[in-house]
Structures are given as structure tokens and as C-alpha cells.
Please model this.
Amino acid sequence: MRYCDALTSATGYGYWVFPPLDIRLIWDGEQVFWSYGEDESWLPLSATDSGAVQFPNYAAVFDGVAPEFLKGCSPPFLGAMPELGGVQMWTGLLAKTRPGWSLSVRSPVNLPAISGLIPWEGIVETDIWFGPLFTNFRLTKTNVPVYVRASVPFLQVQPVPQMAYQDSTLNSYSCIEAAGLEASDWNRLGEVLLPHPDAEARQGAYAVTVRKRRMCPVGQVVVKDSKP
Model:
């Protein structure tokens, strides 16, 4: 898998986000409970603001650096959602991007999922919205503890240009039958389908082509020094 350029490019696109600490979650079908550290006692989560919990001992840290008008407004760390089995967690991060760019928040690409947990994916336009980077997920098992470990990537955050998901971009496509392919299309397809005397060279051709393009992007001209 590590030699497949398409796979490694997808895996490496963006940034891994790790949970701020080890926690345990359990859902009894109606209410969500959590625990952390060596304490095995289960604490209830509520879908109301008053039921959300702070990261252990963080509220005082936040008040120590926040301006006066924001003291007491530390973002909650964990809370239940109105949807059954739904949980919201603050990653501990604030997010801001340059104009025209958003953040796609999703589960880590090509890594095994956390058993009993499904993150909801979202795209946040963080060029105009600056705030805590939260994630929402759903517990899928009842009466079974779900372990979220700080040493395992929990999310993958990917910068996305907003033009990539605008309707004008997504609606700009066409579908044709095979008979409508041009000669140049058939020639390119032949490079993939025709037998090749060197199978290993065929397998690595795509990766070589992609890496060369990354070294010399479209529209960029590389001029080599000429020797006398």
C-alpha cells in the first residue's frame, strides 16, 4: 500500500488531529456517559449547554489568558447531542484559514475506524468563521464501552478551496458514451490497458508522472544552466 501514489496522496492530504486525552464513552440507548483517567466511574452527558463538560482543569487556564469579557466562556470539551448516540467533542484547537479556503473535517483517510464510533463529516468555512474546531460523531453500539485514545488520530482536517464545492464547479460536467471518445482518449487508455513488457515499470509509471508534475507545476518553466 505504501507504494501506491494515489493511496499515499489521499492519506497524506491534510493534518491528523488527535484527541486531547484518553476517554471512554458508553451509550445505553438513551443517554451517553463518559469517564477518563483511572477513575472508572461513569459521568452523564446531557444535550443541554449545562450538561456539557469542560476539559479537566481547563476553565481556569482559559480564564487566565482570556480578556475580561470572555472569562467564564471556555469552550466545552464534551457534550451529548439531541440525536440518539450523538456526541460533540472539542479538539482543543481554534481554526482560521486564508480567504477562499475552508476546512474539511472527516475521519482519518485509509486508517481503521474506532470501533463503535462514526464521525460525521463537515466542511467549515473557516475564513469567515473563527472559533473552536468541534467534531460530531455517533456511537453505534449500546452498553459497550468505546475507547477514544489520545495516541490514535481521531480526525483528518483538509484545506479545501471553496470553488471546489461550489455549484458552478460541481455542475460543470458532461457524460458521453464510449463511442464519443476522441482518438486522444483511446490512445491514453491504451497506455493503461495494452500489455507492457515490464509490469513493474507500468505500475510505477503513474507515480513517476505525478511526482514530476509536482516538481514542475503546470505553467512553470524550468530553465537549466547551460554549460559553455
